[in-house]
Design goal:
By secondary structure, this protein is an alpha+beta fold. It has three helices and eleven strands; from the N terminus they run H-E-E-E-E-H-H-E-E-E-E-E-E-E. Strand 5 and strand 6 form a beta hairpin. The longest helix is centred in the middle third of the chain and has 19 residues. It is globular and about 45 Å long.
Length: 209
Amino acid sequence: VRECEVAAEGMRTLFRLGGEYAHLLTPFVASGEHMAPPHRISSDKLIRNGDIVFIDIGACWNGYFGDVARCVVCGTPSQRQREIYTSVYEALQAGIAAMQPGRTNIEAANAFRKAATRYGLEDRFLSLFIGHGVGIGANEPPYVGETLPGAPVYTFEPGMVFAIEPLIWVPGVRGGGGVRLEEMVLVTDKGPYVMSRAPFEQRLLLGQG
């Protein structure tokens, strides 16, 4: 199957379920080496055995945007692919846990990067930010893990909603060494609440598949 066919099925389902329109340039469907920067939105590339496949779909419903992304594998993953995926997954969980009311976006960003040290990937984050605000806009401030000089510091407050999407890319990995996982997170007075419900790829998690 081609990347564009997967993207087409995602869009068909989005509108069948009542979505008003897609989030910016989604759906992203990038497989194998296409996850390397700068990756394309989707193409006519065939998805091959051993490829990691990145799918990022966002939509607007009743005037509000949502955004979620997962990586899956076609066939059997390599050990290195599983290490990269597990590192991103663990960073995602650690970073979200740090999104407590009264704490800052800097503290959360540090938690993401610290969690990636287990497999020596803390310097492999690849993005202008790790997370962004989402709501009436598809991608809006405040940001988490913004890398530009002079990036503002924000304090998490109840009611804030974020799309948290750490990306780690390692070149030269057969089948692709890029993984991004994205969750929708609501900050509440009791802490972060994950709104998205898409399952993770158990075959890519060390100790699971």
